[in-house]
Design brief:
The protein has 256 residues and is an alpha/beta fold. It is built from 6 helices and 17 strands. It has helices at 41-47, 68-74, 86-91, 191-201, 224-228, 230-237; strands spanning 2-5, 11-15, 18-22, 29-30, 33-35, 55-57, 78-81, 97-99, 105-107, 113-118, 135-141, 144-148, 172-176, 205-209, 214-216, 244-245, 253-255. The strands form 3 sheets. The chain has a 7-stranded mixed sheet. A 7-stranded mixed sheet has the order 9-10-11-12-13-14-16. A hairpin with a 2-residue loop joins strand 2 and strand 3. The longest helix is centred in the C-terminal third of the chain and has 11 residues, at 191-201.
């Protein structure tokens, strides 16, 4: 199993026979947000279907997690979307949409099962979109299991995530450790609380995401610290917990 971080919350999970992409963002900018680093080559290739993406999982409808041009470019066979998001996505040219509420498990090819799990986050599409629920996902494969947290605050349900796997074990927690601005609002994790979430989940490994990628146009100089520090601070907070952190560069991967 290979996990590749494409920046922000976009994470590619590859196992034999299946390629799954979470919260895809395969463009250089969205609205007033721009990338602090170049688009990784893997993201560019996926947008050109070289290789194609089989499944997309969406945590919620916020613009930085549900980018319509990216979704339309990828043309994934299956798009697992949170409740109340399906009709809205179909009307905007996204095909293959299947809604999955918390607790729903979807069987995919290659022996992979994706279970929607709780996320402590407000998922409404602003300014006038649907009030779709925010979810995370546990991806269980014959070669390992991954929790893709999406966007969330701390929640006690994280203790039970491993029970969404066939082995009762969670191998990797992929958790957000910041955002795209200089401050965080409610329903988010910072490096310290993200480390607590990873420990609660019982995962053996942890990868920080949702940091170091996007910033409002013209604000890069004012965000130097939050573009570079959250990942290392997350790793520092996990010291001595038994969870092994992997701070990946944008475009970097983890093989298990």
């Amino acid at each position: 199993m290979r996990l590749t971080w494409l920046g922000h919350s976009a994470v590619l999970v590859e196992v034999p026979g299946l390629r799954l992409l979470a919260d895809p963002l395969v463009r250089r900018r969205i609205g007033g947000l721009v990338r602090a680093q170049p688009l990784p080559a893997t993201a560019d290739r996926l947008a050109r279907h070289d290789p194609p993406v089989d499944v997309v999982v969406l945590s919620h409808l916020h613009h930085d997690h549900c980018d319509l041009p990216s979704l339309r470019a990828l043309r994934a066979t299956t798009v697992l979307a949170p409740p109340k998001a399906g009709g809205w996505l179909r009307r905007r040219g996204v095909d293959g949409v299947v809604e999955a509420t918390v607790g729903d498990s979807t069987r995919l090819g290659g022996g992979v099962t994706v279970t929607a799990v709780h996320a402590e986050h407000q998922g409404r599409r602003e300014p006038r979109g649907p009030s779709a629920v925010a979810v995370g996902h546990v991806v269980d494969t014959p070669d390992g299991s991954i929790w893709l947290a999406g966007d969330t605050g701390l929640h006690p349900s994280f203790r039970g995530l491993r029970y969404a796997t066939r082995t009762g074990r969670l191998d990797v927690a992929v958790v957000p450790v910041w955002g795209w601005g200089p401050t965080l609002g409610p329903g988010h994790l910072d490096p310290r609380t993200a480390a607590r979430a990873a420990v609660l989940s019982g995962a053996s490994h942890a990868v920080p995401v949702h940091w170091g990628t996007l910033h409002p146009f013209g604000m890069r100089r004012f965000m130097a610290s939050v573009l570079t520090q959250p990942g290392p601070l997350f790793a520092e907070a996990l010291y001595g917990t038994g969870v092994r952190p992997h701070v990946l560069p944008v475009g970097g991967h983890l093989d298990l």
